Amino acid sequence: MGDWTPRDRRFSELGLRLMSAAVLIPVAVGMVWAGGWWLAIGCAVFAAAMALEWSQISAFPHGRAMALASALLCLSLPIGLLWLSVLVIVAGMVFCAATAVGGLRVRWTAAFGLFYVTAMAAGLYLLRDGPWDGRAAALFFMSFVWASDAAAYFTGRGLGGPRLLPSESPNKTWSGALGAVTACGLCGLAAADIEMASFPVWIAAGVGISMVAQMGDLFESGLKRRFKVKDAGTLLPGHGGVLDRVDGLGAVCIFGSLALYAFPGLSVALGF
User: Fold this and answer.
1) Which run of H or E residues covers position 170?
2) What is the DSSP string of 63-112?
3) pTM across the whole model
4) Alpha carbons 161 and 173: distance in angstroms, whole number
5) Looking at the 3D structure of the chain, how many domains does it have?
6) Which of 129, 155, 183 lies at the terminal end of a domain, its last residue?
7) Domain, as residue range, for 230
8) What is the pLDDT of residues 1-51, one digit of tens each?
9) 171: which DSSP letter?
């Protein structure tokens, strides 16, 4: 989403970011293309990794148990039993709250952490598995998020400018945010042409996806500031942890799947 750093350091991590993207993007596309159990297994792996990162930054003492609960929720999705998935997440949240060491706020943080990381992974599965062309929906939404991230990175670091929300994420700039929105609006034009759907609807969808992705990014940045950490982990060179990489995508998957379920006509308007 842009940066506020000296010009000679603004692109210092570009090589590492590109290498990470070269690995993660084919994996994500392959998971979504395959769908079903392959996607559920991939979501379970990513959810478990995010749960471990959350337990580390929040000092939750049972990170492996949190990771197991998040993975089991993702693996329950292909079975198609809503009550089973609800039972897994509720039981996991109760366990996290009961075993966290500290007061009410610490216990709430543990329970919320499990819900947060699991919802992001489950959102991708539900977006792909919905009663529409899930493969197209998930791939388009993912592509828009990546376009938003890339445009924000290059415009924000190239142009600099006023900071977007210094109290939560001091390196984000307005130029990066506007660059991301513009890029996704242009992607909407291309998507409308590919899907032979409404140009205004797709442009609005592109802008909305970019805004939700950026809000997810800012939300995660705010959480890290409260935990007094720069990155959620160190697994991905140039990015930090899995949480650092998928915060925007996770938010888009959650709100995108909810929007498509809540407004069935939206999928028709988008050509899904």
Assistant:
1) strand 169-173
2) HHHHHHHHHHHHHHGGGT-HHHHHHHHHHHHHHHHHH-SSSHHHHHHHHH
3) 0.88
4) 6
5) 2
6) 129
7) 1-9+132-272
8) 444 455 545 555 666 677 777 778 898 999 999 999 999 999 999 999 999
9) E
